[in-house]
Structure formats: C-alpha cells, structure tokens
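Dear Dr. H.,

I hope your travels went smoothly. While you were away I took the liberty of generating a structure for the chain from your last submission, since the lab meeting agenda had it listed for discussion. I wanted you to have the full record in hand beforehand rather than looking at slides cold. The sequence, exactly as received, is reproduced here:
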Amino acid sequence: MSIRPKLCLLALPLALGGCVSTVADVVTAPVRVVSGAVDMATTSQSEADEKRGRQLREREERLGRLERRYREQAEDCGEGDRRACERSRDTRREMDAILADQPAAYDDD
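The corresponding predicted structure, in token form, is as follows:
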C-alpha cells in the first residue's frame, strides 16, 4: 500500500465526523419533537399548583383593593355624598361576585 491510500484512510474519519453527527441529529429529531410536544401539552401537578396559587393571590389582592375602595366610599356616603353611596353599592356587588366564585373550603376531617 502506498502512502497516498494510507493518508486517505487516516483522513476519512475526520471527513466523516460531521456527517455522523448530522445523521444522528436527523435520526433523533422526531423523538425530540414528539417529546417536546408532549411536554408542552401536559401540565405537571406543580405547574397547576403554582397557577392556582397565583390565581388565589391575584383574587385576594383584588378583594383587598375593593375593600379599601368600599370603605372610602361608605365613609363618603355617610357624610351625605349620594354618588359615593351608589359607587359603594356597585363595589360591594363586585366584591360579592368575587366571593361567590370562591370554591368551598376543603375539610381535612
């Protein structure tokens, strides 16, 4: 065997190195796509818990803002401001609607 064929044989792995990784990427691509789609389509329990906790915090914050507004409006209403009386009734209705959507408390018993 002359030097030229030996040199070609030594260079062959270097030349095919990129091809092997490309072939591996092509072969594993469908698996990665499917697993990514499944991951996006499912919600883990911890993600659901985080979302529920965030919703509860936002609801409590909203109720707190409405409660402060209601107290101010009720005070103005007590001082004879008729518009404040109307606004306080509207605010109270909004608070009641939010409270009506509250899920029943869980019993640990």
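Two observations you may find useful: Residues 68 and 86 are 16 Å apart (CA to CA). DSSP finds three helices and no strands in the chain.

With kind regards,
E. W.
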